[in-house]
Design brief:
Radius of gyration: 24 Å
Structural class: mainly alpha
Helix content: 40-55%
Number of strands: 5
Oligomer: single chain
Distance between the termini: 32 Å
Shape: elongated
Order of helices and strands: HHEEHHHHHHHHHEEE
Number of domains: 2
């Protein structure tokens, strides 16, 4: 959400949180309330797993307690910011803010995304600039561990383990975002450098491989995958792939049916890595 980065220095308010909820869920027709705290009588539970066999991780406070709990949370968040009376170290504050908000779980839906937006706001305030990180992706890749840690921390006042865990996830998310940005830059340099040497089939196959991300195709690009992408013959695929190896666009590993090709991309001016 652009407002998280544009207005990161502003104090947190209920209006801010509710406006974020409208941005995220404004088109939803399955929610009773959008842009305000939940009011339903049913328990608010955090679950994961398949619908037919859900795993309950946590039951949030009843709706009638949410306004008071959120008023306390907002007061704490603002008081714990940089240069404030109860200022906390950046990663400690961000970790507690996320846990605190998710424990209250004030909205019908969208709490996870808003909770992550609060992490971004908290860190941006501490650093005095918006930050680049991929927290959602990192947490979702490790969702079972994340839910287990959230459940454990929300049931205890001892949250040292949570702070250590979540702080590491934030750092991992930042490293992941930097790596992704570096890959985009390197990808563009790679295509610019090699485009004049490639035919249409080769460009199509390389573009597909690059679009698979920094890791490329799992296990590498095979001749069969190349044929499938380009709709060409095996003989032509063999020539094309050999030519790509010859100009340094690909590296080759294995032999026979186990032959695989990997993109060779320079991430910076002095370092190359095979992907």
């Amino acid at each position: 959400m652009v407002s998280v980065y544009r207005d990161f220095n502003a104090d947190l308010t209920k209006d801010t949180l509710c406006s974020w909820h409208v941005m995220l869920c404004g088109e939803r027709r399955d929610l009773d309330i959008v842009g305000d705290y939940r009011r339903h009588r049913e328990p608010m539970v955090i679950v994961s797993g398949p619908e037919h066999e859900p795993r309950v991780h946590f039951e949030a406070p009843p709706s009638e307690r949410v306004p008071a709990e959120m008023e306390a949370f907002i007061d704490w968040f603002n008081a714990s910011g940089p240069s404030r009376e109860h200022a906390l170290p950046p990663l400690v504050r961000a970790s507690i803010a996320h846990l605190y908000f998710e424990t209250v779980h004030p909205f019908e839906d969208g709490n996870g995304r808003i909770g992550r937006a609060l992490v971004a706001k908290s860190l941006a305030q501490s650093l005095q600039q918006p930050i680049l990180f991929a927290l959602s992706e990192v947490l979702m890749e490790r969702r079972r561990r994340y839910y287990d840690m959230l459940q454990k921390a929300s049931r205890s006042l001892q949250i040292d383990e949570w702070i250590q865990y979540f702080g590491q996830m934030v750092l991992t998310a930042q490293e992941s975002a930097i790596a992704a940005a570096e890959f985009v830059i390197a990808k563009n340099k790679f295509l610019t450098h090699h485009s004049s040497d490639l035919n249409g089939r080769q460009l199509k196959a390389l573009a597909k491989t690059l679009n698979a991300g920094p890791g490329g195709f799992e296990g590498g690009l095979s001749a069969e995958k190349y044929i499938s992408i380009t709709r060409t013959s095996r003989a032509t695929a063999t020539r094309d792939l050999g030519a790509l190896v010859a100009i340094g666009a690909l590296t080759k590993t294995g032999s026979g049916k186990g032959t695989r090709y990997h993109l060779k991309i320079a991430i910076d001016e002095s370092t190359s890595r095979a992907l």
